[in-house]
Amino acid sequence: MTAAVKHVTRRPMEVPNATAEQAQARNSQLRARFPARTAELWWPHTARPLEETLRRLTAPPFSPVSNGTRAGRRRGVTKLLSWLSSLSGDTWQERWAASGAEDLPGAAWADLPLRWMRECGHSSSCDHEDLSSGLLMLICGDVIRPGLPWMLTRTHRHLASAMAEVRDPDGFARLRRLAESGHAGARKDAQIAATRIATLMACKGGLISDITVGDCVELVGVQRRVHVRGGQKKVDFYLRLRTLGVFPEDAPATIRAFGQALGQLSIEELVDRYQLQCRAVRDLVVDYLRERQPSLDFASLDAISRTLAGLFWARIEALAPGIDSLRLPPAVVRAWKEDLKTKRRTTNGPDGTRIEVSSPRLNAKDELIRVRAFYLDIAQWAAEEPARWGPWAVPCPIGDDEIQKAKDRKHRKARMDQRTRERLPVLPVLISTTDCRRRAAADLLRTAQGTEPGALIPGTDGSLRRAVAPNAAGHLIWAEETSSGRRRNLTYEEEEAFWAFAAIEVLRLTGIRNEELLELTHHSVTQYRLPSTGEFVHYRQPPARHQRGNPADGLLRRPRKGVEPSDANAVPARHRHRAPRFHSHRNPKTADQHAGGHRSYQR
After folding, report:
1. In Å, what is the CA distance from 581 to each residue of 398, 407, 515, 595, 599?
2. What count of other Cβ atoms lies within 10 Å of the Cβ of residue 319?
3. How far apart are the first and last CA of the chain?
C-alpha cells in the first residue's frame, strides 16, 4: 500500500451524542424565534408600468451629478427594462425570474439582454457597462430583488454607496458614524459590513431598520453554501446592526449563537459549492468523502472537498468541457498541473479598477497528494467492492516523483532565512517604535483621565477634546478630534499599544515558541530566561542589563478586569493574533526570527 493511502480508515458512521442534539434543538428554537423575512412576490415598485418605472429611475435621487454616470445609468435602465418587457410575467420581478439570469455565474447574465439586443438590431456599444449600471438602479430602486445566492457570488463595489444615495441615506449615515467612532484599522471591515447590509436590502427590500435577525442568519448560511470567504468579517455586519438598535433587546449578542442551527455543511453542500457539471463525477466525489468522513474532522473534510471538487474537477471541466471520466487525456493533465501552480485573486488597482493578481501556489504539491490519494483509494476499494468502485478505477495521472517535497522544504528554509536576514536590521526600529507608541498612548490616556468632559486635552495642541459620552462604559475614555469630529477610544488605543509591545518584547527576550506565548499566565511569567545564556532566573531578580526592565513586570501589573492577577491570562484572546507562527524547534536565532515576523509555513 502506498503512503498516500495508509491514512485511510473506513468505519460505520458515528451517532451524534446527546449534547450535540440538545445544542441543535436549542439553536433551532432561536431560529424559530427570529425567522427570516420571506421573499415577496408583489410590491408596489415592481408592479409599476414601463413608462412610470423609467421616469422614476432616471430622476433624482437616481440621477447623479456626473454627466457620464447619469447617461450610463439612463441607457442601462432603458435597455434592461426593454429587454424585461419582452419576457412573460405581470411584474418586473416575475420577468426577471423568467429570464434565467440568476442561473448564470458572475457577469454572464449580461449575455442574455445583449443577445436580445443584437437580434432586435439595437446598438451594442458600451452595453456591458450600461447594463451593469442599469441593473444597479433596478436593484436599488426596489424594482427587482435578486436571490441571495446570486448576489453573494457577484462583486458589488458600488452597491452600498448607491443604496446610501437612493434608498436609505439616514440609515447609512448612522452606519458611517458608527464606523468613524472606531479605530482607523477597521475602516475596511466597515465597508465589507456595509456591503453585506446593502445586499440584504437588495434581496429583502426595505431600509436598514427593516432588517431582522433571521435575515442575517439566512445571509450567513447562504454565504457558507456559496463559499464566500471573509472570516470574522462575514458576521461583523450583525454586530453593527445590533449596536445601531435595529434588533429587539432579546436578540442574541452575536450571530454565533446560531452556530449549531447553521450547522456544518453536509458533504453534498460542500461539493455543490463548485457546481460540477458531470453528475456522475459529482456523486463519486460525494461517495468518496462519505467514506472518508468517519476518520476526518470537519476542517480536513472541507479541505479535501475544496481540492477534489474545486481545484481538481471544476478546473478539469473548464479545460475539457463535457468530460465524464477520471481517465484524463495527457494534454488536459499537463494543462491542469500547470494551472495549479498559480494562484489567482482579484483586487482593486490604484485607480479603483478590478485587476487579477497571480502568485505561485506554495502548497501545490499538497493538493497533488490529495488528488493522488483519491485515485489510489478508489483503486484499492475497487478490489473490495468492484461493483461500486470498479468502474472508476483508472491509472493515477500523478506520479510518485511529482509529490516529493525534499526540494520544497529546502526552498522554504531558504525563504525563512532570507526573511530573517531582511528584517533583522530594522528590528531595533520596531522595538523603539512600539515602545514609544506604548508610552505615548499611556501618557495621553492619563492626561485625558484628568480632563473634564468637553475640555481640550492638554499636550495635544488643541487637536483633541475629551468627548462627552454619557452612554459609554464607565471604564472607557473617549476623545474627539477637533478638526474632523472623529471619536477615538483612548482606552482601546492604549491597550492595543501595550499588548503589541508586550508580545514583541516577550518573543525577543525569551525566545519562547508561539504556543508558549499564547499560554502564558501570571504564574509562568514569574520565570525569565536570560537571552545570552538561556539560564532561567526568578522574576523578582530581573536582569539589570535591560534598562527598560523585565517586560513581565508590565504583564504582572496589568490584570484583566475583575480577575485576580494570579489567575488572569497574560495575553487576552483578542490580542493573540499578534504572535507570528514559527518553528517548534529552538535555535540561536529563534528569538530574533520571532520578533522579525518569521513564519515557518506560508501558503
Report:
1. 31, 22, 9, 11, 5
2. 16
3. 29
Q: Tell me if 294 sits within 8 A of 12, measured CB to CB.
A: yes
Does 374 score more than 90 pLDDT?
A: yes
List Cβ neighbours of 154 (8 Å cut-off, separation of 6 or more): 106, 107
Find how far residue 178's CA is from the centre of its chain: 21
The DSSP secondary structure of 560-590, one letter per residue, reads PTTS-TTTSBSS-GGGGGGSPP--SS--TTH
C-alpha grid cell, residue 589: 536565532
Please report the pLDDT score of residue 12 as a whole number. Answer: 40
In 10 A of CB 590, how many CB atoms? 19
Instruction: Provide the residue type at 151 as one letter.
Output: M
User: Residue 56 is placed in which grid cell?
Assistant: 422614476
Q: Is 376:11 a contact under the CB 8 Å cutoff? A: no
Half-sphere exposure of 476 (CA within 13 A, CB side): 15
d(CA 175, CA 215): 18
Give 89-96's long-range contacts (Cβ < 8 A, gap of 24+): 90/47, 91/41, 91/42, 91/46, 91/47, 92/46, 92/47, 92/53, 92/138, 92/143, 92/144, 93/41, 93/42, 93/46, 93/143, 93/144, 93/145, 94/41, 96/144, 96/146
Pairing of strands 487-489, 478-481: antiparallel
**How far is C-alpha 556 from the geometric centre of its chain's CA atoms?**
35
| pLDDT tens sequence across 270-319 | 998 888 999 999 999 999 999 999 999 988 999 999 999 999 999 999 99
How high is the pLDDT of residue 41? 87
Least confident of 72-76, 251-255, 353-357, 576-580: 576-580
Quick check: 479 and 457 in contact, CB under 8 A?
A: yes
Question: 91 is written with which cell numbers?
Answer: 411584474
pTM comes to 0.63
C-alpha distances out from residue 5 to 309, 368, 371, 391, Å: 19, 13, 11, 19
- Res 275: pLDDT: 86
CB–CB of 223/153 below 8 Å? Answer: no
Collapse the DSSP code of 464 into the 3-class scheme (helix H, G, I; strand E, B; otherwise coil) and give the result: strand
Strand order in the sheet with 478-481: 464-466, 478-481, 487-489
Q: Alpha helix locations (H) across 511-561?
A: 514-518, 551-556
Q: Do 390 and 428 meet the contact criterion of CB atoms below 8 Å apart?
A: no
